[in-house]
Structures are given as structure tokens and as C-alpha cells.
């Protein structure tokens, strides 16, 4: 089983179920997971003002499944979750459970799709693991998906998430996009990484920035390249916000052979703000790099 | 059918791509591959001469009897795997193992590359009959 954390919701799923579709909208959305042949699990969320009437919700849902032509619809319960199951015309069984996560103020639905026999042991393990993961006391928010295990600042907006072959990347913005935090994990290195990691990182400095310093350090068998840069020609806003600074750390994890990078671009004043906690990215059990 | 990895707002396809995984890509028998150096292969695919390409039009419009496709290292590996016996799923598994990718990462990469090669006539795909 592997862990996933998306939109403050943590869950554990079988290793071969991968996230294929996702929504960035925190108010309403879904994540769909698939094994190698078909979709197997869907996590849906919707912000609600208060706890819904579950009994009525499930009755309505069961009636809708009946209308849709599903057979053998019935109420089910698993690991303390209530739900409804039904058999689709192609003989697949669908089991839909719901819960209200009061601390997140949202309604979550966990939908399983079983191509053959229903596996209540897997359902139970997944539902037991499903819980809310609110921001930490330090103001950090946990995300875990596509091999990235990261902590970003609270109040960030997930601006983009790329999940291409050999490239997973998250980008968060804060405060009217004045601050950016980016996390990436790159594979297929033999095909494109032709220079050492510190040199690659130097080349990845955003346009208009000049490097201030770079250094390398070793931690638990990982060689981490760190650098800082600043905007070379300040703009008007830099005079009251502070000159824009770029800080980044990159390393190659010897366990999975991937290249990880965490970076933050912010006005310099923000960098020393005690309310702005240091972000982190973990590549394996051995290493978590804090920026 | 296929399923891309990405934003559900942009991508929302029904989920069963088993038929695609069971298909067998095979090389175009009319194509010839030339190994140019140790890292690349160029595949030449014969083109049919258009009927309208007759003098005096043919004196002006250039016509190449072969279409040239240069494969990089990944494409070359894919070309080697597409022997008409291996299924897309087996090729994806091989690709994932060789490059340390997950199954769906490798599937997305392999199917995108296969699509390009099929469009260029380098490969053809044989679908398995429905049971």
C-alpha cells in the first residue's frame, strides 16, 4: 500500500493503483486512480457548510443507481463508513462510501470499482486509512502524489500540476502570486541530463536572475546542490516588497535514480519572515530537504 | 481508448484501455531501417506517388519517393521491440523496467511515441480480435 495526500485528504491505496486524473479546485473535484487496465478508485470532494443528512443522501443515491439500471443495489457499511453498492450492466461492482470531514468542511466520497469480486479487505484498509490531514502547527501543508512527498506553506494555491512521463511537478503560489514554491521529480535522466546536477541547477535559474552563491552538501548518501539568486535589475515593486530572491536545492536520489528539486521565488523580506515556514521535499525514507 | 495522466478538468475519458494494451505493434514491411551511427536509426518509408503529380506539375512540385524518420535512442528501442509478437503491454513493462518508470508513466510515453510512428507509417498496429 502506498500513501497519497491530496487536498488535505490522506489515504493509502494498493501499490499498482496510480493517480491518472485529478482536479486542482479545492472546493469541488475528484482524483481517479487506475490499475494497469482500468479505473479502480475515485476520491471526490465537495465543500459543504455543514454535515449532510447521510441517511437521506444514501437513500437518494440508491434510488439514482436503480434509475441508472444498476442491479442488486443495497446499503453497505465498511470500516465505519456507510455506502451503497450496485452491479453495473457489464458485471462490474461499484461501491460508493461517503463521509463528512468536519475539520476540512467538506464531504468526501470514496468510490471503488471492482471488475470481478468485491474485495472488502482492500476497501476496509483504504477507508481506515482515509482521514483529513490539516495543516501542521507550523503552518505547513502536506501533499503526496506522483512520487513527490512535500510540505508547502499554508494558504497556497496549487497553480499547476504536471504529471508527464518522467516528470512530476507541483507549483504553488501565495499572496497574489508574489511568492512561488515549486517541487519537481524528474526521471529518464540518461536521456537528457548531460551535465552535473549543480550545473543543471545553475541553468534552471529563472530569466532575469543572477546567481549569488552555490554550494554542495552531503546528507545520508545524497549530494545536494543548493543555490541562491536575486533579480539582477530591480523593478519598482522590489523597493517596497524587497528584491526578488530565488532559492533552490536539487539532488539525485540514489534509491530511485530521479532528480528532485525544490525552489522558492519570493521577495527577500518574505524569506526571513518567521510566519513563513521552511518548505521541504522528501525523496526517500533517508532524506527530507528543507529549503 | 486511452487514458492520459492529467487534470481531470481537461481529461475525462472512460477508463478501459485493455484493448490498446493487447494490441501488437508491428513494423511496416515496406520500410527500411538504416543505422546511421551508434545512437540513431533512420527509417525510410516508401510513399505512393500522387496521381496528380504529372508533368508539368511534377517539374515544379518536389516529390520524395521515401519519407525519412530519424529515431532517437528511445525510438530505436521501441522499433526493436515492435516485432509483431510483443503486445503494447509487454513493451510498456519493458520500457518501465529499463527506465525506472511506473506502469502508467511508461504507458503514456510508449503510446505517445507509437502514435507518432504509426502516423508516419513506420509502424502498424494489429488489434486483438474481440472474444
How would you describe the overall organization of this protein?
Chain A is 15% helix and 52% strand. Chain A is mainly beta. Chain A folds into 2 domains: 2-132, Protein Transport Mog1p, Chain A (3-Layer(aba) Sandwich), CATH 3.40.1000; 140-290, 3-Layer(aba) Sandwich (Protein Transport Mog1p, Chain A), CATH 3.40.1000. The two termini of chain A are 29 Å apart. With 131 residues, chain B is α+β, with helices and mostly antiparallel strands. Chain B has helices spanning 18-22, 57-60, 73-81, 88-99, 103-119, and strands at residues 6-7, 24-27, 31-35, 41-46, 66-71, 123-126. In chain B, strands 3-4-5 form a 3-stranded antiparallel sheet. In chain B, helix 4 (88-99) crosses helix 5. Residues 9-14 of chain B have low confidence and may be disordered. Chain A binds chain B through residues 16, 18-25, 29-32, 34, 36-39, 147, 161, 163-166, 187-188, 190-191, 256-258, and chain B through 3-9, 11-12, 15-18, 21, 72-74, 89, 99-109, 112.
Quickly describe the structure.
Helix content of chain A is 15%, strand content 52%. Chain A has helices at 54-67, 120-129, 189-192, 197-203, 238-241, 268-271, and strands at 2-6, 9-13, 18-22, 28-34, 39-47, 71-78, 81-87, 93-101, 106-114, 131-132, 140-145, 148-153, 157-164, 167-174, 179-186, 209-219, 222-231, 244-252, 259-267, 280-284, 287-290.
